[in-house]
């Protein structure tokens, strides 16, 4: 048993008709505290840096745009168009979230990769510009090629 429990004052049993809140319980110091009355420390804005050049973001958006346009061309029809429009909204939300987060942070410096020969320091070591581009764009490029492949197969079958 904890020593804190042993230090509590002995409680009298409740009398018939006595309310629990009438002093039968020991006082609780934090019960009446109002959080709105205390002054909190000022909040710091998001300070993370994305450190990717704008060209990488544009290339990612272009890849997803190619994918969605290829799907739209491959499937056609009202139902497929509706599904592609919903997918477009999700892509816009994905990139829009980044935009909103960036608008909440202090102005960011230009990416270190905008300079020729610069490297990006990562948790696993420095990466050259081409390596960063390859890692950031491999999935969007594969998705774009998938959309183009679906469009080609659809055109060959139909």
UniProtKB/TrEMBL annotation:
Highest taxon of the lineage: Bacteria
Q: Does the keyword Transmembrane apply?
A: yes
Keyword terms, alphabetized: Membrane, Transmembrane, Transmembrane helix
Q: What is this protein called?
A: Uncharacterized protein
List all membrane-crossing ranges: 55-74, 80-102, 136-157
């Amino acid at each position: 048993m904890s020593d804190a429990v042993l230090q509590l004052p002995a409680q009298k049993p409740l009398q018939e008709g006595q309310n629990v809140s009438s002093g039968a319980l020991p006082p609780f110091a934090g019960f009446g505290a109002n959080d709105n009355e205390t002054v909190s420390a000022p909040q710091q804005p998001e300070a993370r840096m994305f450190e990717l050049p704008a060209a990488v973001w544009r290339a990612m958006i272009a890849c997803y745009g190619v994918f969605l346009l290829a799907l739209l061309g491959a499937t056609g029809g009202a139902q497929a168009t509706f599904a592609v429009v919903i997918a477009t909204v999700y892509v816009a939300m994905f990139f829009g979230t980044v935009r909103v987060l960036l608008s909440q942070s202090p102005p960011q410096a230009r990416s270190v990769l905008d300079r020729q020969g610069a490297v990006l320091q990562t948790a696993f070591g420095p990466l050259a510009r081409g390596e960063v581009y390859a890692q950031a764009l491999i999935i969007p490029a594969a998705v774009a090629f998938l959309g183009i492949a679906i469009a080609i197969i659809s055109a060959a079958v139909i």
